[in-house]
Each structure stands twice: as structure tokens, then as C-alpha cells.
Design a protein that fits this description.
The protein is mainly α. The protein has a single domain, classed as UbiA prenyltransferase (Tetracycline Repressor, domain 2). It has 14 helices and no strands.
Length: about 300
């Protein structure tokens, strides 16, 4: 039976309507990843301010952080377009579908990075701008171009880039980076491997096909599940330490205990039953966990501030 030839997609013409082109470039920034970064940035500002930070400062930091993360993600799409094309999870991305040329995608990412630096330097402070730019360079040069295709520790080391937004948020409020901010960095650092490895378990065949040595591909499902459990225990320990270091109250402590207990239980279940269903359940809960944990920080800080006043 003859198979109909599929039309070859082409990059968008400059004459096309703005709507589809804007959506294409927006997709290059990986907005769902940016949402996770902002989930940690804004609550960090509440803790640093011991209450409600200036609204304009939150808006300026959010816009700058969004542009910085979008820049790194767009350049990541440019670098990884070859492996994205052979992975089902990423085959819909704009460069794979030829909705934008590689040259324009790279140019967009670079310009967005410059805009982010200038914006943060002018509206927030220089330290926040430097930290955000350093995170971009680390994500692109160290993780995407250096580690991702070479080592199983790619997401462990490279994940440090995703921890920097808490430092940016803290620096935006205080103009410096203090011990609580470093502990927040450690919390996100410990959260990233179990979060990402759970997804990698679900899509390990994708990574194997692309030749990316994610942990499940190299050491297997069972060992990966054990590593997820160990990192989860470390994560919960760090969150409890943070309550004392940041002098947060009972609300945060209860949230850290309950949310952490559920996360450990989810990781134990994944270790006992390492399959696609439990992996995705763990991955989805990891997102809920980090969002609620940081929300509890913000509410606790705001509550303590109101009590003192």
C-alpha cells in the first residue's frame, strides 16, 4: 500500500499574522518551566522582606526573571533541536516543527537575555541582574552543552541553574545573599533530581532513543527510584532546617512536615512499584509540593509580620 507523502513544513514567513508568530516565540521560552521558577521567586521575596515586599519590586523581578529564564530556554531549544526531534515528548517544539528558523530562535534567546539583564539592573539591582545572567550561562553552557549528553549527573549539577531564582528574589529585596537564601537554594537543588528523574522514568525510552544518559537509562528503573527516595528524604530535612534558620512559625513547620511526609510516602511507593503510573504520580506531586511549600513560606512570613505590627 502506498503511503502518502507528508508535506515538509517551512519556517513561518515574515508576512504571516503576528498572532501565530508570537505564540511560536512564546513556546520557545517553555512557559511551564518558567511558572515553576516564579513559584519559588515570589515567596522568597516575602521571606526576605519578613512580610509583603513592594508590589512594584515584585512585578519588576517577575518580569526580569521571566525574560531571563525564557532566554535560557529558547537557547536550549536551539542547542537541543536535534534530540528534540527524536523524542516524542519534545517533538512538538517550534524548531522541530520548523515554525521558526534556528537563526531566529538563537537571536531571540540572546536578545531576551540582554533585555533581562538591563531590565533587572535598572529596575531591581545589579546583583539580581548578575545572578540571573549567571544562571542563564550555567544552564546553557554547563548543563545543555556540557553535561546533558555526557553524564548521569547532568540534572544534579545542571539543576543548580534552576535554583538561582531564589537568590535573585532574595537579592531583589535585600541587595545581598544571606544564609536563608543559600538554604533555599539547597532546597530547590535537592528537589530538582527527584522531580526530574520521575519524569525521566516515564520517558526513559525517549532519552535512550536520543542518546541522552539520564539516570533511568544508565542505571535502570529500580536504582533511579531509590535515588529519588534518598533525595526526597534530604529535601524534607532541608525544609525543616530552613524553618529554624529563617525563623518561620508553626504554619510553615506544619506544612513542611505534612507535605514532606506525603512526598516521602510517594517516593516509597515509587521505589516499591517503579512503573510509569507511579513515576508520573510522583512527578505531578513534586510540582504541587514545591508550590505549596513556598506558598506556606510566604503566608507564614506575612502572618508573622502582621503579628509584630
Amino acid at each position: 500500500m502506498a503511503v502518502a507523502e507528508q508535506p515538509v513544513p517551512h519556517a513561518r514567513s515574515p508576512r504571516e499574522p503576528w498572532g501565530p508568530r508570537v505564540r511560536t516565540y512564546f513556546a520557545l521560552t517553555k512557559p511551564r518551566i518558567i511558572e515553576l521558577l516564579l513559584v519559588t521567586t515570589i515567596p522568597t521575596m516575602f521571606v526576605a522582606a519578613r512580610g509583603l515586599p513592594p508590589v512594584w519590586l515584585m512585578i519588576a523581578t517577575t518580569l526580569g526573571g521571566t525574560a531571563a529564564a525564557g532566554s535560557a530556554n529558547a537557547i536550549n531549544c536551539w542547542v537541543d533541536r536535534d534530540i528534540d526531534a527524536v523524542m516524542a515528548r519534545t517533538a512538538h517544539r517550534p524548531l522541530v516543527r520548523s515554525e521558526v528558523t534556528p537563526r531566529n530562535a538563537l537571536r531571540f534567546g540572546l536578545v531576551l537575555g540582554v533585555v533581562a539583564f538591563v531590565w533587572l539592573a535598572l529596575t531591581v539591582n545589579l546583583l539580581s541582574a548578575v545572578l540571573a545572567t549567571a544562571a542563564n550561562l550555567f544552564y546553557v553552557l554547563v548543563y545543555t552543552m556540557g553535561l546533558k549528553r555526557r553524564t548521569t549527573q547532568n540534572i544534579v549539577i545542571g539543576g543548580a541553574a534552576g535554583c538561582v531564582p531564589v537568590l535573585v528574589g532574595w537579592a531583589a529585596v535585600t541587595g545581598t545573599v544571606e544564609l536563608p537564601a543559600l538554604l533555599l537554594f539547597a532546597i530547590v537543588f535537592a528537589w530538582t533530581p527527584p522531580h526530574f528523574w520521575a519524569l525521566a522514568l516515564r520517558y526513559r525510552r525517549d532519552y535512550a532513543r536520543a542518546g541522552v544518559p539520564m539516570l533511568p537509562v544508565v542505571v535502570g528503573v529500580r536504582e533511579t527510584a531509590l535515588q529519588i527516595l534518598l533525595y526526597t528524604v534530604l529535601l524534607v530535612t532541608l525544609t525543616l532546617m530552613f524553618g529554624a534558620v529563617a525563623q518561620l512559625g508553626l504554619l510553615y513547620l506544619v506544612a513542611a512536615l505534612v507535605l514532606g511526609g506525603v512526598y516521602i510516602a510517594s517516593s516509597v511507593r515509587l521505589w516499591r512499584e517503579p512503573n510509569a503510573a507511579t513515576a508520573m504520580a510522583s512527578f505531578k506531586y513534586s510540582i504541587t509540593y514545591i508550590a505549596l511549600l513556598f506558598a506556606a513560606m510566604a503566608v507564614d512570613a506575612a502572618t508573622l509580620s502582621a503579628t509584630v505590627m
